[in-house]
Amino acid sequence: MTPRRSLQTVRLAALPGDGIGPEVTLAGLAVLEAALGRAGMALEVTTHLIGGAALDAVGEPLPAATLEAAQGADAVLLGAVGGPRWDRAPVRPEAGLLALRRGLGAFANLRPVVVHPGLEAQSPLRPERLVGVDILFVRELTGGAYFGRPSGVGGRAPNRRAVDTTEYGEAEIRRVVAVAFGAAAGRRGRVTSVDKANVLATSRLWRAVVDEVAPEHPEVAVEHCLVDSFALRLLLEPQAFDVVVTENLFGDILTDEAAALTGTLGTLPSASGGGNGPWLFEPVHGSAPDLAGRGIANPLGAIATVALLLRHAVERSDLATAVEAAIAEVIRGGPLTPDLGGSATTEEVTAAVVAAMRAGAPA
Ligand code: NAD
Ligand code: IPM
Ligand code: MN
Questions:
Q1: Rounded to whole angstroms, how far apart are CA atoms 156 and 287?
Q2: Which of 40, 295, 316, 360 is most buried per CB count within 10 Å?
């Protein structure tokens, strides 16, 4: 494919964050550098504080300098934020991530879930249920309960109360639903919209907007599904889904559930964008405090995230495909980290992906 706009130098803002975040970010950067090198392109990386690391260093989870650097970059690569150390902090590390997503206008969060040949054995589901599973979740990322007002805890024990508010405007729904239909048109032409319209007013508005957008895409078949029933169907018939679009909170929960289809959370990538800012790329997993510092986190999620970065921000699908082919090869033949039944380290898996890419067809 001929790139529409090819950058000669990619200016990347790296936000490693907490726990395994820095470990998997290093892995992603190694692969990104190798991929760009194949195409004679350069990578310029600046590293910035976010999350708990930023709270410790400067007292806030998203320093203004980090947001500014992110907004000025060609793309933003984030590791993960959060961890038990900050669980009782008055401001949580996760607040920095939410502010970053908002600050970049990243309202559409694309989370592809593919069960690569070789992964079926790791899944708790029977292999025949998993062959060919290829779902694109489009999660609304800057609205809903995550950003509702007012949100907080008040009163004194035993009468404390807490409130979170789910609010959606129709324009907010329309723009993310449009992304889902656009994506489905280039895939297998099916959209499943997930809501809780039998209970929630926001879901009834969501459903109405989906029905208004649908006629603009007559080539795409649309179905509505209640979130509880979708959670069930995702395990019973994962092959039935193409593009799934849903609100922020449901999307968070369902994509972790979908990760179980692949046997681990460690391989899932994501790309977020849609507004005026640069796109934000982050693996779906968190800071995995149980693995942090042990050198055994699965880097494939961060590496697959780099493939999305090459496709969406650098607009080099050829390089993205080369990275994805290298990942598929390593999943087939190893080495693999313990979450996938292997005994390799993060570094060994990363080196194997780089080697597989170098051995692959030239860009
Ligand atoms: P988690 O995603 O960190 O871990 C869940 C499980 O998946 C754990 O068993 C972990 O070992 C495993 N896992 C995750 N990433 C892995 C990888 N790369 N390789 C192998 N195994 C992996 O979720 P959690 O433990 O519920 O949350 C820990 C912290 O991470 C919390 O503070 C949470 O808020 C934060 N978090 C951050 C992000 C983010 O920054 N995008 C996403 C999710 C959770
Ligand atoms: C994710 C994470 C975040 C979310 C947290 C860390 C705020 O779970 O990216 O899936 O809920 O969006
Ligand atoms: Mn999550």
A1: 33
A2: 316
Nearest ligand to residue 101 Cα: 2
pLDDT, averaged across the chain: 96
Task: Look at residues 15, 9, 83 and name the one whose alpha carbon lies nearest to residue 280.
Answer: 15
Q: How far is the CA of 20 from the centre of ligand 2 (A)?
A: 15
Asked if 276 and 255 sit in the same domain, the reply is: no
Whether residue 178 sits in one domain with residue 105: no
- 326, part of any domain: yes
Give pLDDT tens digits for 145-192.
Answer: 999 988 899 999 999 999 999 999 999 999 999 999 999 999 999 999
Residues 6 or more apart in contact with residue 193 via CB below 8 angstroms: 177, 180, 206, 207, 210, 222, 223, 224, 225, 244, 245, 246
How far does residue 2's CA lie from ligand 3's centre (Å)? 35
Look up the domain containing 295 and give its range. 1-114+264-363
Q: What is the residue type of 179?
A: V
- Given pLDDT bands bounded at 50, 70 and 90, which one contains residue 84? very high
Are residues 256 and 153 part of one domain? yes
pTM comes to: 0.97
Mind telling me the catalytic residues?
A: 146, 196, 228, 252, 256
Ligand 1 nearest-atom number relative to CA 83: 32
